[in-house]
Amino acid sequence: VWYLQAKGGPIGLRLSGAVAALVMIVWDGEVVRLVKENKMVMELWKRYVDDGDVFMQVFEKGWKWKRMA
């Protein structure tokens, strides 16, 4: 069985993993910035490769995130 990957880095290539790690570091910073900017409290932020775990305050019923662009 052959699979033709349409986009992204090839699986198994060391460079793909390194680039993905850098992208996730930038993403981590964005998440932390948004949480602080919105005066929220994050008790724990932990990531393993591309899985993130977060413990933070419970949102009130009806709460919505409005991204201002």
Describe this structure in words.
The protein has one helix at residues 14-37, and strands at 42-48, 51-56. It is α+β, with helices and mostly antiparallel strands. It has a two-stranded antiparallel sheet. A hairpin with a 2-residue loop joins strand 1 and strand 2 (51-56). The model has no long low-confidence stretch (mean pLDDT 84).
Query: What's the total count of β strands?
Result: 2
Q: What percentage of residues falls in helices of 4 or more residues?
A: 25-40%
The biggest sheet, with number of strands, parallel, antiparallel or mixed sense and barrel status, is: 2 strands, antiparallel
Along the chain, the helix and strand elements come as: HEE
What is the averaged pLDDT score? 84
| Alpha-beta classification | alpha+beta
- Low-pLDDT residue intervals, each spanning 5 or more residues: none
Give the end-to-end Cα distance, rounded to a whole number of Å: 43 Å
Q: Strands of the biggest beta sheet: in what spatial order?
A: 1-2
Rg (C-alpha, Å): 17 Å
Tally the helices: what do you get? 1
Write the layout of secondary structure elements.
Layout (H helix, E strand, L loop, with lengths): L13 H24 L4 E7 L2 E6 L13
Antiparallel strand pairs: 1-2
